[in-house]
Amino acid sequence: MSGVVYWLDMAGVIVFALSGVMLACRSRMDPIGMLVLAAVTSIGGGTLRDLVLGVKPVFWVTDPTYLWVILATVGVSLVGFHYIHRLSRGFLPIADAFGLALFTVIGAHKALLLGTSGMVAVLMGMMTGVAGGMIRDVLAQRVPMVLREEIYATAAMAGGIVYVALHALEAPLTLAIAASLSVTLGLRLAAIHWHLALPVFAWVTVPPKTHDETAAPLSTPQKAKERVRMIRRERKKR
């Protein structure tokens, strides 16, 4: 089953690299910019995860295949630039949702293999899925998805909890992976489709109204009559 997890990891790299390429195209970046966004999106979260867990060297240094996959994804994207450019704006969040689901499973799985607690494994899964996209959005001068009202990190956390719970119950690995992917992907796609969001808590300061503002607003006919009265007063003064 380690081979299945490895290929899921590669699939996540491709999907996240593609989302980075698409955002680079929309931001009018050159090929180097495309490569940078593709790289930070696809391996940024896993790099932070390995650094936090004390894994040395990080995964893409041990296995440079990840770098070759990123280069290949960017190369294919450059060749088919016109096709990627025509993709609807809705494709980017969908591709990002698939990458989020895949990397959440990978991050939680690796943390559990290193002997961490369930809570740490959930956080590592969320970090693996979220951090790369945050770096991508910051470099493209966008507000990261995880900082918006949308359900994003919540979906990754829910998927991580499902995976860790099934692992603790000694469920088959295929079942744990499928359930976690379904929960994360289902929540994220539902949030995209129905515009679901968490409640926002903020202090709202309402400035006191002036005397003029407290008066009832005039309707359009009233404004017209008031204008006529003003014109008549001006004529009488003359």
From TrEMBL:
Domain Glycine transporter: 6-78, 94-167
Pfam families, sorted: Gly_transporter (PF03458)
Major place of residence: membrane
Residue ranges of the region described as Disordered: 212-238
Membrane disposition: Multi-pass membrane protein
Keywords: Cell membrane, Membrane, Transmembrane, Transmembrane helix
Cellular location(s): Cell membrane
Gene Ontology cellular-component annotations: plasma membrane
Source species of the chain: Vreelandella glaciei
Record-stated family: Belongs to the UPF0126 family.
Name under which the protein is recorded: Trimeric intracellular cation channel family protein
Transmembrane segments: 6-25, 32-53, 65-84, 91-112, 118-139, 151-169, 175-204
